[in-house]
Each structure stands twice: as structure tokens, then as C-alpha cells.
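Researcher: We plan to redesign the surface later, but first we want a full-length starting point. C-alpha cells attached.
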């Protein structure tokens, strides 16, 4: 009996050690970070700056003369303070281990699922979430996948007991996979990519035309009876309350998809992916369509394109007047490296690192309609920020030391750190 009890207790200790840290408690008193280089997120830098926040809201920000009376003063001298990075178009919290089906909840069966909500599938206990906030990613957009109309996304904070605690903005937009002229097939046996003609394109577009036309007519009714859950989920597209996120990469597909949405009177359209967005930059600017680029660390689409074109894409679009954000798309395990995409952009066409910082802070916030609350460090906005030992866009100096989400101080333990300690201890043994 004693051995059994010992085994149970040992298992309990090991299990608790492997668990994520508990979500942070609400901010109890005002906090002032002093002496830091503050990166506001709008291109401005404050040297030897001070940021004060209370009850989760920034109450003051400025130079060293900013009053801190009554606040707990935390010296950040020689360090850098940033607004929390924002990861759009992500599946963090929706899948854990790609090869284990039970941990993947990012899509539903069927082609037209506007009523599906990624929000309620978001898993705050995911071990990936602590790893992204340890690189400064404090907000993520839970994005559904699959089918032609995947469902709605929501903007989530990287801390919370459950999705109700973590959500910042519910159902911010609907996701459409545009049926383009070409379809890609990836062969996992030899890791080759094949591009072929999309034989189902005409059928898919006809179904979209019918669904969106019905949704537009339904949205014109103030009190439809009986309620249609699928069409009800699309109502916000026509009132401007929701974005229509369109996944499209090829230039011709982008033009066709945006034209389709605009013809239906959908005011807020966002292109996601946009691997050939540079070819239609003028069109995007004229139609006021932002672009969320997928990860930049890839090869170009065409053999005759410059090998560094993906790196230069944000600068090309920005120069054309297009609002640009960055994401790691469905590569959820790499989302923690979002900051380094911005760092790459700063070396290939973006004028400086403060402009590059916007790609993962203010620009993403504007695109998702949350810039009134986050995206920059300004008085009245939420205190969702972090302290880094150095330049957070450089992997050599991105060492996140403190994180605050809505003023709550977050525990920075994660699986990566635990494994590092485990094997460091092992190989240091004499």
C-alpha cells in the first residue's frame, strides 16, 4: 500500500510539474516601468521612458519626468518595452500535435460552414501558448480552416482560464478560401509541391454566389423568422461589423475574389496569404484592401522571381500604400517567431525597425479592428506589453523578461524552458 501511495504522489508531482503555469491574477495596484527604451508601436521611440498602468489600462506614458506617485516602480533601465505582438491568421490554441487527431480542432466537415466559431474551440491549456508569449506574442487570432467558407475567427489573449476569459474580440471576421484557377497539392512522401488546374472551381464559385446572395437578402431583414444560423453568422459582413478574410495567393485570384466581395457590398475585405500581392498592389490600394502576408521565410512562387522577393514583399506593398500585417498562417508551432519576420522585413525594404514593428502591432490591430484597445502603448489603451532585454525583432537579443496582459503579470514558465533545464542538468552532471 505504501508503494502504491508513493507512486501516486510521484505521478502527481511529475504531472503538476509538466502543467502550464496558472493564469495571472488581476492587477492589484498601479505599476510603473521606468528607465526603459519604449517602442510605442506607431513609429515613435521614447528614450529613458516611463509607462504607468493601473487596473489593466495605461494611465501615463512619457519621458523620465512622468509622475509615478503611488505606483509600484519597476526599473527597466537599459531594457526595451514593447506593445504585445499580435499574431493574425493563426491556429494556436486550435491544434496541439499535428499527428494526434484528438488535439486538432481547427475545422469542420463540409464546404460552407459560416456558423462555425473558432472561439469555442480555443484551448487555453495549450502548451504552445506560453511559448509564444515568451517571444512577445501576447494576442492571437484563432482562425478556422477547411472547406470554402471556414467559419469565424476571434482575437484571443495569450492568458486565461478558458476562452471566455481569453477572448478580446468575438467573431471579428468570416474566412473564405477562394477557389482559384490553380490548386496546390503537397506530397508528404517526397515533400514535393504540385500545382494543377482546379477542376472544381466553377462549381465552388456557383455555390458561393448562391450562399452570399442569400446572406445579403437575409441581412436586409430586421427580424427574420425562422432564424437561419448559417446566414445569421454572415450578417455582420454586410453591416461592416465583421471582416471578410479571403485566402488567396495568385494575383488573378486576388482580383477576382475582391471584386466578388465588393459587388456584394461587403465593406471590409482582407486578403490573407497574398504571395503575389505585389503584382496587384495598385488594385489593392484603390480598393482599400489590407493584406496579411503569410510567413516571409520561403522561396518565391515563380522560377524567374528574385529569391529575396518574399522578404521584400512588405516593403513593396507598404510603398504602394497598402496596409500590411504579418502572420505565420497555419504554422502554429512557429508562431513564436513572428517578431523575426518583422526583423527580416526591416532588412529588406522597410525603412527602419520601428516601421517594421508596426507590421505585427499597430497594422495587425487596425486590420482586425482592435486598435482602439491594443497595438500601441498609449494612455487609455490596455496594458498588454512586455519587457525585453534587447531588440525584440532580433532573435539574438529577444529575451523577454516580463509580460503583462491587461496589466496582469504573467508567469513566463513554459515547456521549452522546462526541457532546457532538464537536459542542461543532465549533461552538466559530473
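Model: Full-length starting sequence:
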Amino acid at each position: 500500500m505504501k508503494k502504491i501511495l508513493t507512486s501516486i504522489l510521484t505521478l502527481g508531482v511529475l504531472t503538476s510539474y509538466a502543467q502550464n503555469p496558472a493564469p495571472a491574477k488581476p492587477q492589484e495596484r498601479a505599476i510603473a516601468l521606468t528607465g526603459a527604451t519604449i517602442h510605442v508601436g506607431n513609429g515613435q521611440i521614447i528614450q529613458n521612458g516611463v509607462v504607468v498602468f493601473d487596473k489593466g489600462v495605461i494611465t501615463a506614458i512619457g519621458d523620465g519626468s512622468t509622475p509615478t506617485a503611488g505606483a509600484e516602480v519597476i526599473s527597466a533601465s537599459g531594457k526595451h518595452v514593447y506593445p504585445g505582438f499580435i499574431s493574425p491568421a493563426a491556429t494556436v490554441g486550435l491544434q496541439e500535435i499535428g499527428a494526434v487527431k484528438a488535439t486538432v480542432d481547427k475545422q469542420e466537415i463540409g464546404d460552407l460552414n459560416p456558423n462555425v466559431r473558432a472561439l469555442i474551440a480555443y484551448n487555453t491549456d495549450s502548451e504552445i501558448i506560453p511559448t509564444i508569449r515568451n517571444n512577445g506574442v501576447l494576442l492571437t487570432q484563432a482562425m478556422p480552416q477547411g472547406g470554402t467558407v471556414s467559419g469565424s475567427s476571434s482575437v484571443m489573449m495569450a492568458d486565461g482560464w478558458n476562452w471566455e476569459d481569453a477572448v478580446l474580440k468575438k467573431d471579428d471576421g468570416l474566412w473564405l478560401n477562394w477557389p482559384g484557377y490553380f490548386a496546390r497539392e503537397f506530397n508528404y512522401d517526397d515533400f514535393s509541391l504540385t500545382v494543377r488546374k482546379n477542376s472544381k472551381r466553377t462549381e465552388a464559385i456557383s455555390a458561393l454566389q448562391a450562399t452570399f446572395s442569400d446572406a445579403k437578402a437575409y441581412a436586409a431583414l430586421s427580424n427574420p423568422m425562422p432564424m437561419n444560423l448559417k446566414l445569421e453568422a454572415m450578417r455582420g459582413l454586410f453591416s461592416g461589423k465583421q471582416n471578410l478574410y479571403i485566402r488567396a495567393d495568385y494575383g488573378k485570384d486576388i482580383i477576382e475574389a475582391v471584386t466578388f466581395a465588393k459587388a456584394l457590398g461587403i465593406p471590409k475585405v482582407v486578403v490573407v496569404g497574398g504571395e503575389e500581392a505585389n503584382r496587384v498592389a495598385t488594385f489593392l490600394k484603390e480598393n482599400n484592401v489590407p493584406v496579411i502576408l503569410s510567413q516571409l521565410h520561403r522561396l518565391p512562387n515563380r522560377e524567374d522571381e528574385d529569391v529575396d522577393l518574399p522578404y521584400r514583399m512588405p516593403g513593396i506593398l507598404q510603398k504602394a500604400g497598402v496596409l500590411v500585417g504579418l502572420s505565420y498562417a497555419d504554422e502554429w508551432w512557429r508562431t513564436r517567431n513572428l517578431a523575426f519576420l518583422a526583423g527580416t522585413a526591416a532588412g529588406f525594404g522597410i525603412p527602419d525597425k520601428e516601421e517594421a514593428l508596426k507590421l505585427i502591432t499597430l497594422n495587425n490591430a487596425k486590420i482586425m479592428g482592435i486598435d482602439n484597445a491594443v497595438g500601441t502603448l498609449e494612455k487609455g489603451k490596455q496594458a498588454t506589453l512586455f519587457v525585453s532585454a534587447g531588440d525584440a525583432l532580433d532573435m539574438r537579443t529577444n529575451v523577454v523578461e516580463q509580460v503583462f496582459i491587461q496589466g496582469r503579470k504573467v508567469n513566463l514558465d513554459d515547456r521549452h524552458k522546462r526541457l532546457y533545464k532538464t537536459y542542461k542538468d543532465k549533461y552538466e552532471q559530473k
